[in-house]
Amino acid sequence: MRSEKKRKGKGKVIGFSLLGIVILAAAAIGFEYNQLQPKNHFKTIPVASNPSGKGKTKSEPQSKTDSVPPFNILLMGSDQRPGQTIGHSDTMMLMHVDLSKNEINAVSIPRDTRVHLDGYGYTKLTSVQYILQAKKGTKQGIEEAVQAISNLTGVPINYYAETNFEGFKSMVDILGGIQMDVPMDVNIGSQTINTGSHFLDGNTVLALVRERHSLANGDYGRQLLQLEALKGIAKGALSKDKISKLPSLASSASSYIIDTNISTSDMVSLGLAAKNYDFSKQVNYQQLTGVGEKLYDDILKAKNDEIVIDPQQIKDVIAKDFQN
User: Fold this and answer.
1) Each residue's pLDDT tens digit, 185-214
2) Could you give the CA distance from residue 281 to residue 149 in angstroms, rounded to a whole number?
3) Are 113 and 297 in contact (CB under 8 A)?
4) How far apart are CA 264 and CA 46, in angstroms?
5) Among 280, 290, 158, which residue's Cα sits nearest to residue 228?
6) DSSP letters of 186-240?
7) Please, are residues 112 and 125 in contact by the beta-carbon 8 Å criterion?
């Protein structure tokens, strides 16, 4: 009888222990989920670069309010191949994220934009990263390319991430394909993707975001394809059947991101903020455009096709869409 009581007592202890573990685990998950809410997570916002050569600053603590101050994210695509350590910044999209307004303003910057690189002279923006990676290493070359874009636009860049073109394929494949709105007829090899919404695999998305030579408006058309690919990836990652996988999707980013200062928890928190976004209405997009000219490139020591953007156009875009 006594041993039976002991067994019952032991069973209660085990039961209470398991219950305690479950309660503690639930509390930990609840705490983590609460900490990942944007208003709690973004207590400090880093500054990767400031314009006019001011360089990095420390993370800036935010005011104690329920709203998250706006911040800027730079997304870059590199033509760096697997196994290589240098590449050109082939795609550049700067986003002003205002979570308190549930709004993202995005602008694409042409890869062939003419810029001045200190110590070298005038060249294409796409060449800045390649040159500095060759001289200073992969990471520092990317960081200085980020600085060059901050100087060009006149805004601080808080977060940045660079992937190669294979990264588009990896992200799409991880999601099992995406629904993408193709804004124009696109010829990729012997295949034509017609204007409209299509469910696409990673190989097809990769071909679309790389294509520019057959498009009537060249690189500007490719920028639109890249925007729609990013929208499709975001919609897929934040869909109801995928949102629970967001942490694992974010943690797998290292397989397709060359360099970033965005942490896994940053990605998850941004995902939680944007999970109910209507990307067709809450993402405002435009392109910086310029005049194509054949100008002397100080690095090539020869004339090169470059795009000259009116500085006033940049100022107007920044004043309209990138002010806090």
Assistant:
1) 999 988 999 999 999 999 999 999 988 888
2) 27
3) no
4) 15
5) 280
6) EEETTEEE-SEEEEE-HHHHHHHHH--TTSTTHHHHHHHHHHHHHHHHHHHHTST
7) yes
